[in-house]
Amino acid sequence: MNFQMWANGDGLPVGSTGVVDLGPTAGVGLGTAGIGGAPDLVAEMQQLIDEMRVQDFDSIRFATYRAACKLRFIQKKTNVHLVDIWNMIESFRENGLNALPIHTSIKTSRIELLLTTIFHNLNKRLVASQHIDTDRSISLLLSFLLGAYDKHQTGRLAVFSIKIALATLCAGKLVDKLRYMFSQISDTNGIMDHTKFTDFLQQILALTTAVFEAPTFGFTEAAVLQCFQKGQTVTLNQFLDVFMSDPCPPCIMWLPLLNRMSTVENVYHPITCDACQVRSFTGFRYKCQRCANYQLCQNCFWRGRTSQNHSNEHEMKEYSSYKSPTKQLAHSIQKSLQCIPSSNSKSHSLFSEQPQRPLELQNIVPATPTTLRRYHTDSATDWAASPVLLPGAVSNGGPLDDEHKLIARYAAKLSGRADYPLGPPCGPNRAQSMGPPLDERALIAQLEEENNQMIREMTRLETQVNFKEFKLAI
Ligand SMILES: [Zn+2]
Ligand SMILES: [Zn+2]
Q1: Across the chain, what does the average pLDDT equal?
Q2: Which ranges carry the ZZ-type domain (predicted)?
Q3: What is the whole-number distance in angstroms between the Cα of residue 225 and the centre of ligand 2?
C-alpha cells in the first residue's frame, strides 16, 4: 500500500488488516466527552467495525464494489435498509427537521428521537414476526452517524448530514433519493446551489470515508469538478442525468452500485462457480469471454480468485440475472425458426438478460496507486472522455419514470396523508419483502417458478423441434 497516494489522508489504507483504528473520521469522535458520556456508543461502533472486518471486504480488489459492500453491510446491520425513502422523509417532517435550516446542528438526544420515530414507524409497518430490535438499531445507527460526522466530538450533528446520510442509506429508488437530495441543495427556482452541492458531496462521501474508503472515495475539490463545472446552471434533470448516467462521476460510482446490490443480492444462480466450486450462489455472476463456459461467483471474481487456465486479465461479463440453458436454447431456436409464432414471452420478463456488459477492469477503480492518483487529479473532462464503465449501473428505471405517481405520493406525504398510493418498489411493503424469512420464501418461489418454466419450455421445445422436422420433411 502506497500511503502517500491517499487522497486526504484521513482514512485507513484499503486492505488494511492491522489493528482496528477508526481514524479521525471514523469513530474516534465517539469519546465519552463527545456524546454526553455514552461509552456504549463507542463500544457499539467498535463492534460494528469489527464485524465489518470479519466479512473480509478489504480483500475485494475493486474499490467501487468494496465501498458498496461495506455500506450495504452497515445498512443491514442497522436495519436502515428496511426503511423506504418516503418513510424516511416523513420521519424528518414528523421530527421538525424540515423547519430547520440545513446547517443547524442538533443534539444527540434529538437525533436519537428521530431514529426512534424511524424505527418504531418501521415496526408498525412490519408483521410481528419480522419486527426489528429498535433499541439496537437506534444505537448502532446513531453510533455510525456520530462516527462518520462528529469529527470534533461535539455530540451534535448538522441536520444536513443526517438527511443526506439517511437518504443515502435507506431503501428506495435511486431516482427518488436523488430528487430528495436535490430539493435540499436547490433554490426556489429549482436551480442547484453550487456551495450546497459541495457540502452535499462532502456529506455523502463522509459515508465512504467512514468505512475506510477515503483513498478512492474521499471528498476532494476534484470530486466536485467531476460532477459539474463551476458556475454551471444545474436543474433537477441535469442533476439526475449526471448522477444516473453510465458512467457516473467516479467519486460517486459506489452509489448506484449500492442501490443495485440490494436487488441483485437475491438473484439466484443455479450454477457451479469454477473457482470455489460452490454449487449455486446469489448476487452477481461473472462469465469469462475467453474460456468456454467459465463462470465465477461474485466473491471469487471480486477477490481475483481463478482456476484452470483462466486469468484475471480475461474479459468478463457481469450478469445480474439468470436464464436457464433450456430457455436460452428455446429462445435461439425460436429466433432461428421464423415460421414459429412467438409464444409465452411473458414468462421471460421476470429474468431479463440485461445487463450484460463487458467489464473494463481498469475502470472499476481498483485501489492501485496509479488509479488513485488518476482519479484524484483528473479534471472533469478527463474522466468524461474516458470510456469509464460502471458495472453497478443504475437499474432503477429512467429518471422520469412514474413521475406523476411520485409527485402525487410526495404531495400526499407532505400533506401528512397516510393513505397515499404506494407502488411495490417504494412502499412500506418493500420492507417486508427484504426480511430474511421472505427472502427465503421468495427464493423458493423463484426456484419453483424456474422449474415450472423449464418444464413448460422443454415441452414447447419438443413441439417446436417436431414442427421443424415436419417443416423440413415437407
Ligand atoms: Zn466462487
Ligand atoms: Zn478466462
Answers
A1: 74
A2: 268-324
A3: 37
Task: Please name which ligand lies nearest the alpha carbon of 293.
Answer: 2
Ligand 1 centroid to residue 270 C-alpha, Å: 12
Tell me the CA–centroid distance for residue 294 and ligand 2, in Å: 6
Q: How far is the CA of 358 from the centre of ligand 2 (A)?
A: 13
- Domains of the chain (ranges; CATH) run 3-264+369-395 (no CATH), 268-363 (3.30.60.90)
Burial code of 357-393, b = ≥16 C-beta within 10 A, e = fewer?
eebbbebbbbbbeebbebbbebebeebeeeebbbbbb
- CA 215, CA 15: separation in Å to the nearest integer? 11
Listed in sequence order, the residues at least 6 apart from 193 whose beta carbon sits closer than 8 Å to its beta carbon are 185, 186, 187
Distance CA 170, CA 52 (A): 19
Distance 117 CA to ligand 2 centre (A): 51
Cα separation, 248 vs 251, whole angstroms: 8
Q: Which ligand is nearest to the CA of 282?
A: 1
Name the band, by pLDDT with cuts 50, 70 and 90, for residue 456.
confident
pTM: 0.65
Q: How confident is the model at residue 452 (pLDDT cuts 50, 70, 90)?
A: confident
CA 251 to chain centroid, in Å, comes to: 14
